[in-house]
Amino acid sequence: MPPKAKEKTGKKLVIVESPAKSKSIAKYLGEGFVVDASVGHIRDLPQPSELPADLKKTSVGKFAVDIDNDFEPYYVVYPDKKKRVADLKAQLKDADALYLATDADREGEAIAWHLLQVLKPKVPVYRMAFTEITKEGIARALENIRELDTDLVDAQETRRVLDRLYGYEISPVLWRKVARGLSAGRVQSVATRLVVERERERMAFRSASYWDLSGEFATAADESFRAKLVAVDGARVATGRDFDDRGELKAPKSGTGVVPLDRDAATSLAEGLEEAAFAVQSVDTKPYTRRPAAPFTTSTLQQEASRKLRWSSKSTMQVAQRLYENGYITYMRTDSVFLSNEAVNAARKQAAELYGADSVPAKPRVYKGKSDTAQEAHEAIRPAGDSFRRPVDVRGQLGADEFRLYELIWKRTVASQMADAKGSTASVRLSGQARDGRTAEFSASGTVITFRGFMAAYEEGRDISPAEEAENEAERRLPVLKVADPLTGRAIEASGHETSPPPRYTEASIVAELEAREIGRPSTYAPTISTIMDRGYVTKRGGALVPSWIAFSVIRLLEEHFARYVDYDFTARLEDDLDEIAKGHLARSAWLRKFYFGEGQEAAGLQAVVENLGDIDARAINSVEIAPGIVLRVGKYGPYLEKPLPADAPEGTEPQRANVPEDLAPDELTAEKARELMEATGPEERELGVDPETGRAIVAKDGRYGAYVTEVIHEPTPEELAALPVEYYKNGKPKPPKKPVKERPRTGSLFKSMSVETVTLEEALRLIRLPRVLGTDAEGTEITVQNGRFGPYLKKGSDSRSIGSEEEIFTITLEQALEIYSQPKQRGGRTAAPPLAEFGDDPVTEKPIVVKEGRFGPYITDGVTNITVPRDTAIEELTRERAVELLAEKRAKGPVKRGAKKPAARRPAAKKK
Fold first, then answer.
1. CA separation for the pair 826, 818 (Å, rounded)
2. How does pLDDT run across 78-87, given as a tens digit for each residue?
3. Angular region, 859: left φ>0, alpha ψ -120 to 50, beta rest
4. CA-CA 20 to 30 A from 347: which of 209, 399, 580, 794?
């Protein structure tokens, strides 16, 4: 008999990425739809070590990608996603149709394809894509279902394989020549290079001094304004822009001369103008027009949130993700500035209602992106829906962070469809003659806004220097002036200035730079910044990105031996090629083959570059000359300064070294600072005497983690070892000589009040004899006192208690120790440190949420669950909503599982057609 046909259930299974998204979508779907989540990707490339034994020796074994067969990836389901996959398969059994509703970009398309490959549905499958989770957005998505776009999947898979080839070929070179645990990446290495190059510019920068004059000038009607000196005897006065990075005056572009003023010239001119008569030389008035900024893309949203909210790119994207998944904004990963007709109408209508009909131009504004290679045709980031909810309407529904970002997006979107700001800019020149005959010209400008237009709703932030900011602050309304009007000068003062080095990148400015160079895409900016910080290549000082010395070593190696792969234009072309693959214009396998194997002798591939590296001088790669005779080395335990030994130095002589403080930025390690650090270092080793009990020498040393004392244990010479009695086997043959067991020397860290130069033998002997036994408690448990990494402490069994100072180690008595142990234990010592922040009770555990300083940095806790504060989040930026979310995520993950088994072997998945 033929198999019984499956009965129709009317159930339609919709799969999205996240549980939050599934809840939002379910509200807008009709009867019969069941929404479930894959919780992100369900499978990926495994580590090569996790491959089945029979594949490790094949062309798949090096990358988990079959490089000999069209770069076919070998995918495995994540171990922690197997239950999720089983649940989805169970849901699919009762369904009549499957709707794959993952995000409408390459990553979302790839997730949908992986679901299709793993679930193997026997029912009709539809691709459902949308950019906003609203009733209208979901309805439009159902009306426009389509098939899976395999070109987008190809582009994502190519990117994944490309990153695997890049990282797995280049990173091992960094491990061998710089340090273990480092990584190279297609975008992360280029981003790190940008930060390092900017620091090199700052290190090479030499400041220049220049002076100028400013004063207050009043009309006959006593209306005053400030003006700045711009010329002396017809020659323009030099400003900071007239000096190069070497501190030298640039050659003038035009025929007019440029005169730099020093202190004497400026002060004498100011004194000579004290009673001078001034008059207006010229007045120039021009119309002022300013257009609104385009709606947000991912890049501009991250930049503006950094400027206005002081958020990191990662924090911005996390908040934006929550807003999108809960139906408040459109999809947040986009490089498009396009707005749909519905959005344009909504913005224009709301602007007219709130700011008046004249605030909206006659025709809608149409924006075009800077790049012609934008990813999939998304909209800009805007409030969701065909009509926008005002910030005041959603304040009660959103957390503090979500509200601030929604308000920013709403303002920017509405302002983008409003009229230009209008006004006039007036510039005035005035002059006067000093007592010594020099003619001084001053200039002032002011802008008057007569029609605010879009500025009533929103004004874009800018990354400007302090000098530019000062100039902008000087722009204000000027009194009505005409040529030849007399003016009175007041408080004309000379002031000196120093030119400033190029500013370090901030998260906002490096995202702007990457976008301007067309490196990376909307989905890569935040992860790239997080990666280079997590790898220790970059740290944040305030908002600035500061490279580490190890980043200098990594970038130098890449520039000298992998120049093509950290070239800005080459990396941008890779992005363009991925876009072409997404459009179906390039074949993935042919492109990967050319990248890895090359194309003829003229275009070597990555494989050939790695195989023909030749010798790399690791010492040279990890060295930077700071001053004549002083070199910075990047060593196993961090950076240090070293004076190379002269050629005639006796054999065995150690060069002089000095540690580099961790908080010293590379551009702050000047030649003068290097010499200061070298001079401040005492002898690396000083012999203090002999321990009368053991006869061993006691020495004081300066180590990587501070000064310490230790005993010198004599190692037997080859002659002494040869003189030891020989042991024999039962057959009469001599046994091989035993290696002597190395005895570990006793050591002790110096107290903060001690130094290598001043510590005495008596003090050293007391230190190496620690821990000191105080006695026992009533149960007979021994109590000791000793010094540790986090300070002096008592120890009784597994119970440790901190004590007040290092000196107490030698003075505390058993009675005092017992008194300490009689008190309840408080974390961190006898008195609990106050929390760094408090956020009220947790909504789940109803216990107070606090931020504490822990052994490995600040962490959030409710007394039950602990989670480290993300590295890119300052304590000051942390909010209650974010703290609650982090704790909830940690609870959802459950306890950390140790010793997880390797994923089961799987044959390669069927390739898409």
1. 16
2. 998 999 999 9
3. beta
4. 399
